[in-house]
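Journal club prep — side note

Before the paper discussion, L.F. wants everyone to see what a predicted structure for a comparable chain looks like in token form. Sequence:
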Amino acid sequence: MKCPPKYKKYALLFIIFVPILIALYTWVVMLLWNEIMPDLIGAAKLDFWHAMGLILLAKLIFGFGGRGCKNKSHKKDWKHKLQHKMSTMSPEERAEFKSKMKDCMPWKDSKKDDCSSHEDSSMTQ
């Protein structure tokens, strides 16, 4: 299967710019290391390849900086907790909680300053 022409252009840009960006990143790390670390802790100066090795080692130890965490379910945990709390409240408590939350909406003009004074005991455990 042949790649469409627009993908060839992107592949060429990728092949050209990714090594340039990696080299630039390595160069910046090398310069920062050589300016800061020898004076700070007496570390040896790094050349380009040692700086690249240091970056790779740090990436292996601390991770490759993926977008967000591996488990994305924690982003929705607050919704589940809120639904659970709302389901255990009485109708009066639920109405009171909703009215307090409506008062704290940033796009409403009235009672904006009262949001910090609300002590909603139904949301704390």
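L.F.'s comment for the group: The chain has a mean pLDDT of 79. Keep this in mind when we get to the figures.
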